[in-house]
Records
---
Amino acid sequence: MTGRMDETHDPALTSWVESANGHPQFPIQNLPFGIFSIGDGERRAGVAIGDLILDLAVIAGHLPASAADAVSASTLNALFALPAADRRALRRSLSSILSDAGWRDRITPALHAADDCTLLLPATIGDYTDFYVGIHHAENVGRLFRPDNPLLPNYKWVPIGYHGRASSVRPSGEPVRRPLGQRKAPDADNPVFGPTQRLDYELELGVWVGQGNPLGQPIAIGEAADHIVGLGLLNDWSARDLQAWEYQPLGPFLAKNFHTTISPWVVTVEALAPFRIAQPERPDGDPDPLPYLNDPADRSEGAFAIEMEVLLSSERMRAEGLPPIRLSRGPASNMYWTVAQIVAHHASNGCNLRPGDLLGTGTISGAEAGERGSLLELSEGGKSPIALPSGEERRFLEDGDELTIAATASREGAVPIGFGPCTARILPALS
Amino acid sequence: MTGRMDETHDPALTSWVESANGHPQFPIQNLPFGIFSIGDGERRAGVAIGDLILDLAVIAGHLPASAADAVSASTLNALFALPAADRRALRRSLSSILSDAGWRDRITPALHAADDCTLLLPATIGDYTDFYVGIHHAENVGRLFRPDNPLLPNYKWVPIGYHGRASSVRPSGEPVRRPLGQRKAPDADNPVFGPTQRLDYELELGVWVGQGNPLGQPIAIGEAADHIVGLGLLNDWSARDLQAWEYQPLGPFLAKNFHTTISPWVVTVEALAPFRIAQPERPDGDPDPLPYLNDPADRSEGAFAIEMEVLLSSERMRAEGLPPIRLSRGPASNMYWTVAQIVAHHASNGCNLRPGDLLGTGTISGAEAGERGSLLELSEGGKSPIALPSGEERRFLEDGDELTIAATASREGAVPIGFGPCTARILPALS
């Protein structure tokens, strides 16, 4: 792991951008990439530094030539496609420019207050795939959908995944329209069509694909980490009543594809190098991964020391000036498969990944009650409502609710870094 | 229906491109759009006419101004995004130019022999969705996967679909690499990883989306047909052993996403106007579609008089000079849901469709033995091999096999039109 560390991770490093020093999300050790607009609405590549955003196209002449075109584009797809060495050179250059006060005068005109900017999707998403690596989530949900058979026999062999909808992935901040759809009550003869009554969130990590692979050419597990450019926070909005009625035999469809929220900053694997930790040991009796998914280096540093949390505020809570409540909190290491394993599995049949593809991990729940990553789990399928400080209660999400996923990577000896928010508010269904 | 017919459908219409007259696929009544390259490899929009391809960018100045930019692009996405009225004006213009011999000298330089051209994907596919509307297929396959429960209770209410992989959709002619993957024999303790032993095809129609809808705004059933720009032939290659092991609970994934073949010509809904027929009556006792899927006009002309067939040749058959054998043949009207219904359902929750999205109908099998649209069905799950004229037999596809889907739209009083081939050959798995 230390082989991936360089001077950009030095905990003593500070920036002449004052707000970066001690910033809980975007100190100089982070330097996440994103796409923003300001004023004219043109899409520009940027880097978050403290409370500011650095416009990369404006300073492209000061950056390594290998990255100059990529940082001047209106999406990050070309940047994601760069060889890892070029990405690292870009990071070192940005770190040097933002730490050396000699650059202040030349660079300051390229800095914007983040509050003045709109953050957009970082890349054109060719395909979006959602996995199911949270074993506690799989068990909790499996128990609700299939009480006798919560964890299916393939779960510990196959990193289960399915294709999601690329067109409806939206950056943090865009509201979510409550979807209409078919639902059938267990005791009803026929389904009805109308607004979902069981709107839910799912706490996930998003994985941005860097370099791709040609169709027909798998990615070896030992090389899979090199195909990942960074992580974000992802909310896989779900309509549980639609899902229960539609999902057999071909999986979730309209229950999920009405909206997916992603945090707009791409926290790079380079920034996350100090936070790599060993993948948790498989419980006794679990099978070893098959060879195409089994890599000692991935076992020893395939997980991340990231703490995630989910916050909720209702319209009434906001009207009463009450702060959001935390619904759950837990480590991102509650994943049965690593991000490298899901990449290697995805490409194991020759399926081609492309730069800018987005992979969701699936809901990350922990073993404890306070670590459940969806309302379906927290309310035990709607049976146990959650009390809000406004006197309301929630089984599922109501119109006006605002849901936020936040996360911090932290580890002793490293400066903690954040992901920025992944947040959205629920709009009522169309009548 | 007759409201949609105009002079471009006149059976008496002929072209000064001699090979178009009597051409089984591309008479002047068809005029399908596609993207081709020739020589320099540049992607150009074209129209098939007889044995030739008309380069649209070269003659853009002679076409309606509303379509001039769209036909000069390197994909058809902009053409698909045009209002239907503009597409129809373009069609009338092309029909007039190719039928009036006064244009011959000016247009001839823009014509290429199709044999000299390479046909490419017609559009950048934002999302690819596969449906399951072939009720006989659903019953046949359901019986193999779930003998006690072949057709699930949601089937006659919900046009079942799932998201497929956009990145691995390939035009006719590109070979298919046999995928590797996990499979588990019913009597084995553990799965193994290796080349699929049950490689299969699926006979489908592909539906190209024209104008899209904004996220959060459903498409009404009465307007759904206007969002479809045309049809193609689609082969949803499937690895049945991978599928059986992976598909629960989230549906097919690696069993399908290694390759999908689409015929490169987009046969427009305008060209298909004479072949619209009533949707077959639902059997007695089946529920009426819910209102959001129920439209009298769609019932009376939501299906198409298209006859589809599947042809197979093995490497040995070709070496021995034997022609391909027909595996199945049947009408495309064996669909429980119309293409308008799948579009309306897809967008019913607000999911946004975009121009160039591709929808597969799902395997179209008929009730008769000769109408089964996959080897899984034809060989009854591998139990009943199919004899080839070379003395070989097939349960599933072997390396070197070449599979072709072909189709013709025909109806009394109309000139039949075709789709061009949807064909590919199987390459051995990577060792």
Note: The first helix of chain A runs from residue 65 to 71.
---
Amino acid sequence: MNEFDLIAHYFKRPAKNADLGVGDDAALISVAAGHQLAISADMLVEGRHFFPDADPERLGRKVLAVNLSDLAAMGATPSWFTLSLALPKIDETWLAAFSRGLLAMADEYDISLIGGDTTRGPLTIAIQIAGSLPRGQALLRSGARLGDEIWVSGPLGAGAAAVMHRTGRIKLVDELAKRCDLRLDLPTPRIALGQRLRGIASAALDISDGLLADLRHICEQSACGAEVWLETVPFAEDLHALPESLRQEAFLAGGDDYELCFTASPDQHKAIISLGVELNLGLTCVGKIIPGHTVQLLDANKQPLPITFHGFDHFAYES
Amino acid sequence: MNEFDLIAHYFKRPAKNADLGVGDDAALISVAAGHQLAISADMLVEGRHFFPDADPERLGRKVLAVNLSDLAAMGATPSWFTLSLALPKIDETWLAAFSRGLLAMADEYDISLIGGDTTRGPLTIAIQIAGSLPRGQALLRSGARLGDEIWVSGPLGAGAAAVMHRTGRIKLVDELAKRCDLRLDLPTPRIALGQRLRGIASAALDISDGLLADLRHICEQSACGAEVWLETVPFAEDLHALPESLRQEAFLAGGDDYELCFTASPDQHKAIISLGVELNLGLTCVGKIIPGHTVQLLDANKQPLPITFHGFDHFAYES
């Protein structure tokens, strides 16, 4: 099986949201008038972003999920993606499972694979994804204003607990480890939430490096500071099994849940609570935007706490 | 230096052709009414697509050039690209040179880097590029018709000769090796030619796997056959130094020149000759579209010749 057969066999399907998909020098796309494209790219490397024994079907789902999550954080509606894949060898069992997971995820979000590249090399997966949204309505990182409330979706930390377990830092009982694994392997991109936050949120991003680290990006780009109220941050029930310091690290510095963090004027407080009920999604106010340029963690008495861990940095840490 | 600093330092510049570039969850793009986007993705792996000792500045130019070449083959005007980069370590000398070459090439074609990703891993470079063109005017692989002439740009084979030299299959004298190296390292994407071929060519692609192998893609997608007249195929002067069999292999099966192959009605013959003069670019008629579904190589007496080599296949061959 050569390169062309491989693409045709595993990845070529009729292209939705595109005029021409896989098979020519490029795909062709039309964009509706009055809309913008939101474009994001991610690269995942074996041994760094996923374990060498990762289940290929779950992996296929996850690589698309983390890219969809970037679109969610912009408030965009996903349209299509490309896939570039370096494979150490042609392993048909692996490819069948990987493409099954990837394309199932694509179906769930009604997007199509419009192009890409395969080559031999150390297992590396690069995806670029595009979505569309009405011009000028994107949720940027630069829109937070003094006094805005800071919100997060979902309970945080289960994905990070799974990483701690797999790397031997903690030992979870089987059932609990499995639940946390599910969060790590199969994060749910918050697409519907992102779309509904257009016109409500002032700034947004997806938590991929940990709440505190990612909030720093909003502070930098919005030229503001932030305070986070430790006692209010919603964490996964399973984290009760962890010692307090590791629990805090998991939900404050773990980025593996791909939930959204966003800011909004206090005027929107009730609308956001209603939205959470409507989407059946936990939405919790965990702090507010303040003057300055740093992220502060406050205890129940609003006293500053030291921050002794850091967000995942792709170069500062080894996996 | 962490991941964010790295992007900001080496790759972030004001975005042209984009409403928002590097630095948020996604870039934002507006597309003109009546236009389509052409989207292509390529992945290059060290040791497979480039040599481990490759000059990083040339490499930066080349990775963008091969992606631009795909847009040329569609007749599109390049607009922007994303870059995903896996690096074994942060080597600032390498990064400075690589980004210099990449961004210089981007400047020459007036496009901007709008997003991407960096991570630690075996040196791998994934680029996705987009261009625009008036709706419905793309040069597809599926448009060739019986009786159409087959054309190629530029003399072919110098890039392949450089590969043969570097891998020890042939020994070129220094000056000649340097000239062939230049073609291999710094191919010129035929953007202007592609744009001008809109409305003239019936089908087009860029020669990245070798003339005969790539022509097969046109035959498959256009449901036709092709004959190529060996004596007419323009090859680089430097190839005279090669034995005949290797010379033929270089210009018929070498894909490293990134020239265009296209088909057009004989009615367009004169217009194409004029276009070659205007663009100061060799454009040569090398065959024609015939019934059937195979690519035949004919000698000066129009007798079929055996084809004893194959185009570069990313999986069938080891580098």
Note: Chain A touches chain B through 69 residues (CB under 8 Å).
